[in-house]
């Protein structure tokens, strides 16, 4: 039942199960390699990573697996903030810094060549699959990456964004439904208009691009993956399902929160990073959402402002101030190993096919 | 492949494809009977209907089909509004009344025994399947309906609501994902927290109730129905897919709007009825959304206030003031017949099963 699957063939993997390249330390080399070794596609979420750390982790992944793996990077944006705007945003964050005894406000310094250096690492380290979030990179970058046979994958939250990805030369596109945890990949048009449920988004995207579509958003187990394939996707990308697994680098509080939350407990908010992302509602979100939006800096500046708060909140065990990214299916989360997640999905999908045919009248 | 499906067996239908009981004139006797004759479950949306009209339409459906059909009714609410609140709400609607040359403000009069009379009709007219939206009716109503073998179906937008439906004796429950067009069925908890995508909602509901689950939201074709079954649902309820079909009683402008819209063009709004519902964005929504919420009366009072506006807008061909309910998959809409919708779904699902197994390595 996996024969003729273009994602499997093109990536040289066994099953079209893709572990999302979540940034922020979740995607350890252990996690990415475990997923690849189980026959899926493991991914390093390198969005915020410095080139040196990227090199180290990629080398580790290569040591742990000989199978295909990927790296996800962020297409950069360089917003400006005036001193007044920054002071205004910091004012809202002062109570948390006081509470967590953080004495210094961070300095906002963007490395304008980070993306370029990250791409260089992907080239020199021979990373076989490169995926992008928050837009499409310049065409030359895509061309260079593809020159040596790398597969490039984009992210879309609307049909229009999927078409833009295809037109820019992406080999595949992830269609991210509104259920998805973490950051919205929206890069063209309004964020609130791009909250399309996976069940709606996937077939509409499939009908409008020729490249293979990978469904993302809400899938946690064999049922979700099987449904994604039925919708016309050639693969399924799972994020939250892997956050709670054994090999994940997510903080213990983050794992616990997902494992103990309900489907009604997540919310899409920009208060942590300046860009909408889905996470579990906590006091930081509730309090910060009381602002009018102008109290936040644009992404990634807001992310820099809250970085130390999130870090200290984790180390002082204050989950109410952490960014607890989660999709809308937390009730399906488990703490099994990554390989066991992949295996149980494969078992379910293969058995479901056979049973279905057995039931045919 | 349909063997062992509890929705099929219990409803005595051929395929677990349910046409949603949409209120407001969409579900003609032609539509409901065509779906039932094609092997699915046709439904009359009787939410706003007077008992006499219900009787007439039910008799027609029975004349047109000998198969199982259903009727959907609304669990009533009786909010109050002060004269001041009503005047405030009417003030916001004045410009539309002026534009459409509507001279009188409507009088707000709720028939407090409408629901009771509707239930009586369902009993005397031997309606075999009764579904409810906006909550669960008193236990005696459910008991009475079930006494003569009627199947009762509830609506849930969260796991908790599904559990409430099961506990009240519902035989099945529709799990309505955030993609769904028209009114949100939410009746317990906050509306904005109950916007769960179908891909997330269905398996989580399936895991928490023993009664069969019918998926709703975003499904328009064989791909969606197949995906719903993969998620563990025993059936799929389609609304928007049937709004544009030949037998639908939807206004021409409504059909046209769905057929020509994009997945990013719908929005959830309370401005038409006082309750959140998903429809295609137009000037009425955009202008009325500028209010702070207090300019709207509660459901169903706001619905009464806007009724004449919506009606006149349709007859004067001003779709910008109509309620153009639609789910998030309008790009998948077609103007084929109802039977052809059901047939193409069945063909797709059966073929997909066989192909899948053929591909098994």
UniProtKB/TrEMBL annotation, chains A, B:
<dbReference type="GO" id="GO:0000166">
    <property type="term" value="F:nucleotide binding"/>
</dbReference>
<keyword id="KW-0285">Flavoprotein</keyword>
<comment type="function">
    <text>Nitronate monooxygenase that uses molecular oxygen to catalyze the oxidative denitrification of alkyl nitronates. Acts on propionate 3-nitronate (P3N), the presumed physiological substrate. Probably functions in the detoxification of P3N, a metabolic poison produced by plants and fungi as a defense mechanism.</text>
</comment>
<dbReference type="InterPro" id="IPR013785">
    <property type="entry name" value="Aldolase_TIM"/>
</dbReference>
<protein>
    <recommendedName>
        <fullName>Probable nitronate monooxygenase</fullName>
    </recommendedName>
</protein>
<dbReference type="GO" id="GO:0018580">
    <property type="term" value="F:nitronate monooxygenase activity"/>
</dbReference>
<dbReference type="Pfam" id="PF03060">
    <property type="entry name" value="NMO"/>
</dbReference>
<keyword id="KW-0216">Detoxification</keyword>
<keyword id="KW-0503">Monooxygenase</keyword>
<keyword id="KW-0288">FMN</keyword>
<keyword id="KW-0547">Nucleotide-binding</keyword>
<keyword id="KW-0560">Oxidoreductase</keyword>
<comment type="similarity">
    <text>Belongs to the nitronate monooxygenase family. NMO class I subfamily.</text>
</comment>
<dbReference type="InterPro" id="IPR004136">
    <property type="entry name" value="NMO"/>
</dbReference>
<dbReference type="GO" id="GO:0009636">
    <property type="term" value="P:response to toxic substance"/>
</dbReference>
């Amino acid at each position: 039942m996996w024969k003729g699957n273009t994602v499997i063939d093109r990536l040289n993997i066994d099953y079209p199960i893709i572990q999302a390249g979540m940034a922020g330390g979740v995607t350890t080399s252990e996690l990415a390699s475990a997923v690849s070794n189980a026959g899926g596609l493991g991914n390093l979420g390198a969005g915020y990573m410095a080139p040196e750390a990227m090199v180290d982790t990629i080398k580790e992944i290569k040591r742990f697996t000989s199978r295909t793996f990927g790296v996800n990077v962020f297409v950069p944006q360089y917003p400006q903030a005036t001193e007044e705007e920054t002071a205004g945003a910091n004012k809202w964050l002062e109570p948390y810094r006081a509470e967590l005894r953080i004495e210094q406000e961070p300095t906002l310094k963007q490395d304008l060549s980070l993306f370029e250096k990250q791409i260089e690492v992907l080239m020199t380290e021979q990373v076989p699959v490169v995926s992008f979030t928050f837009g499409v990179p310049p065409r030359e970058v895509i061309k260079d990456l593809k020159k040596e046979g790398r597969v490039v994958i984009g992210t879309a939250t609307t049909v229009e964004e999927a078409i833009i990805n295809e037109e820019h030369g992406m080999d595949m596109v992830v269609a991210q439904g509104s259920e998805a945890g973490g950051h919205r990949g929206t890069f063209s048009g309004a964020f609130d208009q791009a909250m399309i449920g996976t069940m709606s988004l996937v077939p509409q995207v499939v009908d409008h691009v020729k490249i293979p579509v990978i469904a993302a958003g809400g899938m946690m187990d064999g049922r979700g993956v099987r449904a994604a394939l039925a919708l016309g996707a050639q693969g399924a990308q799972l994020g939250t399902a892997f956050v709670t697994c054994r090999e994940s680098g997510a903080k213990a509080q983050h794992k616990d929160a997902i494992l103990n939350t309900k489907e009604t407990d997540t919310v899409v908010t920009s208060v942590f990073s300046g860009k909408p992302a889905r996470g579990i509602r906590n006091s930081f979100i509730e309090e910060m959402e009381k602002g009018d939006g102008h109290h936040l800096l644009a992404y990634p500046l807001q992310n820099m402002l809250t970085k130390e708060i999130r870090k200290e909140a984790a180390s002082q065990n204050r989950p109410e101030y952490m960014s607890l990214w989660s999709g809308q299916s937390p009730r399906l989360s488990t703490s099994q190993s990554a390989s066991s997640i992949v295996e149980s999905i494969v078992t379910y999908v293969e058995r479901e096919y056979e049973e279905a045919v057995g039931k045919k009248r």
